[in-house]
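COMPLEX REQUEST
Ligand: glutamic acid
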Amino acid sequence: MSQRLTDAKRVVIKIGSSLLVDQQSGDLRRDWLDALMDDVASCRQGKQDILLVSSGAIALGRRSLGLGARMLRLEDSQAAAAAGQIRLAHAYQESLARHGVPVAQILLTGDDTERRRRYLNARNTLTALLAHGSVPVVNENDTVATEEIRFGDNDRLAARVAAMIGADCLVLLSDIGGLHSADPRLHDNAEFIAEVAEITPEIEAMAGATGSHDGSGGMVTKIQAARIAGQAGCSMVIADGTAAHPIARLRDGGRGTWFTTAATPTSARKRWIAASLHVRGSLSVDAGAVKALGQGRSLLPAGVTAVEGDFQRGDAVVVRGPDGSALGRGLTAYSTADAQRIKGHRSDRIQAILGYLGREEMIHRDDLVLG
Ligand code: GLU
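STATUS: Structure written out below.
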């Protein structure tokens, strides 16, 4: 199983509050964080992209604002998050600076992963940050997250982000070591579940029986996260992160419950594109482009001869050959208006024509499904 972590090109690691912040003192567990960031730096050295989703802002902010351990009203937890987030981000920055790795902070709400335009922007920014060798640190944007658009738990946020960036492995680190057939605190014969290939009602029932001291999650949100990740072709592991170097231990075969999927991020994305209900228009292409697409290449503006329909960047469109027959479908990187202007032109002309530096491809090969 640990192979899934070592082989992954892109890994999302979710860090629960109970690991980062000492439950008694409310202090940041600096040595533990440094050890984890040593693991992260070594993954990066092995050419893996790493993105962190970190909780802990509210726990840290409570202390700065002197709010104690009492139940907080929504606006007080939002205030605590705002005060704590700055310390949280700083801690990551300092810890990774020891390895010369740049850190970037991203705060998201549920809306940002659902509305297409915001989704695309977040996705592009995260992808660019990874391409520039940085480690993005994501948390929920608690200040603006009203009930309707809140995740409320970082397990699902982490899964949505993993799906968004096409990660192939999601690691949920918390004080929950994984899934048991029954609550191990109550049943001596409770068995540890090492692999879940399918989330059945039985698995869901087991999840209900596993408790945690962690932030807002618990096993139920972790199972929801596993579903989201699985649909996106991303394997997920739940592991206890309490002791130092949890990632190194997992890589060495350490214990965790793995939710495996036969799909890959690319195959899952392609399946989703093939099934997309709303096709907003079409792009007709010349014979040269038909050949290039057949060889698995992207569709460039130069090969496009006609643009029809009313679509925005990120919409699904049909690709038609010179005889008008449908070759497949894909997600376009340009709106109808922009596609009209750059069709038939070489990609190095895009900036001069549109006034901004857009993507080189009209449809990237990962966003294209033929047949
Ligand atoms: N966004 C919250 C925080 O940073 C955590 C939510 C969670 O733990 O799931 O404190």
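REMARKS: The CA atoms of residues 112 and 122 lie 7 Å apart. Residues 277-370 form a domain with the Archaeosine Trna-guanine Transglycosylase; Chain: A, domain 4 fold (CATH 2.30.130.10).
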